[in-house]
Amino acid sequence: FNVETVEYKNISFTVWDVGGQDK
Question: How far apart are the first and last CA of the chain?
Answer without folding.
Answer: 14
